[in-house]
Amino acid sequence: GIGEIEKFYIRCHKEASNYKFIPKNKIIKDKLAAFEWEFSFISNMLYAKGKKVEIDGCGFLRLNNDKIIYYRDYSDSINFLLQGNVPF
Fold this sequence. Notes:
alpha+beta
C-alpha cells in the first residue's frame, strides 16, 4: 500500500547521498522518446558504506501534448547489487 511505498523512499534517502542523474543519447520521434542515463550516489548501505555506486540504464516514454503520460526504465540491476556488496 501507500504506506509501504513511502517507507521504501524514506529508506532509499537514508541509505544514499550525493545523487547524480545524467540523461544521455536521447531519441524523440512523434509521441515516443527513449534515452540512456547514468545514475550515481554515495552509499550508506551496510555492505558498501561510503562507496560510490554507479548504474547505467535507459528510459522509454510516451508523450501526449508534450507531456509524459507513460514512463518505464530499465537498469543494470546485477551491477548495482555487486557494487553495493548486496548478498544475493
